[in-house]
Amino acid sequence: MNRLTALFRRLQGERRARRTGGRRRSDFEPNRGWRVVLALALGVALLDWTTKAAVAASVPLEGFVEVWRGRVALWHVRNDAMMLGLWDGFPIAVRQGIALVAGAVAFLVVFQVVGRMHRLRPGEREWAWAFAGLAYGGMLGNLGERALHWGVTDYLSFAWGDLWLPPGNVADVALFAAIPLAVPVILFELRGRARRAPRQTVPSPGARPLARA
């Protein structure tokens, strides 16, 4: 159990249980960002499941109802493919395997982001919290529904000129909103690494190298 706890803490970015030389102070601080991320993710997933259930109960399959005339409509469809219709021609077992692998990889990537967000400066951490919470919430919303009956309920469609875009759902909106938030999070991390990098000391022209003992 102690080894599993140490591994979990290591994945969260807390590298040492006790202070040792050469470690940042943030490596030993509790990572409270998990609370915000989990609360946001659960909120997005619950909102996604609630709206899907409401649409499924009120709008017939393939039904189309304009909520905001010429702008927003409820278009109830059943999406058995992956996002954007990827791998639609593959057997269901193959698509389930792809979804499982993709979900696991995405989970680990976002997990690493959450584990290191407490190293960012105050004011930067909130960006990472929002990114991770929206990403986790979107994945949980769609993958949770796929775990029950594979297909995903799509219903939210927007007008583009005279055309109506393919419908999505709250989980899709959360995932697409998380994408641009990843840019400042990456920039904050790169800036932090550059700030923490050891400075190279340039010897003076007349200095002699130290003799080895």
- How large is the count of helical segments? 5
Oligomer, anyone?
single chain
Distance between the termini: 45 Å
Count of strand segments: 4
Derived from helix and strand composition plus strand pairing, the structural class reads alpha+beta
Helix content: 40-55%
Mean pLDDT: 77
What distinguishing features does this structure have?
213 residues, alpha+beta, 4-stranded antiparallel β-sheet, 5 helices, 11% strand
Describe this entry's structure for a reader.
The chain has helices at 2-11, 33-58, 92-116, 125-149, 170-196, and strands at residues 64-68, 72-79, 152-160, 163-164. By secondary structure, the chain is α+β, with helices and mostly antiparallel strands. Strands 1-2-3-4 form a 4-stranded antiparallel sheet. α2 crosses α4 (125-149), α3 (92-116) runs antiparallel to α4 (125-149) and α4 (125-149) packs antiparallel against α5. It is globular.
Question: How would you briefly describe this protein structure?
Answer:
The chain is of the alpha+beta class and 213 residues long.
Helix/strand layout:
Elements: H1 2-11, H2 33-58, E1 64-68, E2 72-79, H3 92-116, H4 125-149, E3 152-160, E4 163-164, H5 170-196
Antiparallel strand pairs: 1-2, 2-3, 3-4
Helix pairs in contact: 2-4, 3-4, 4-5
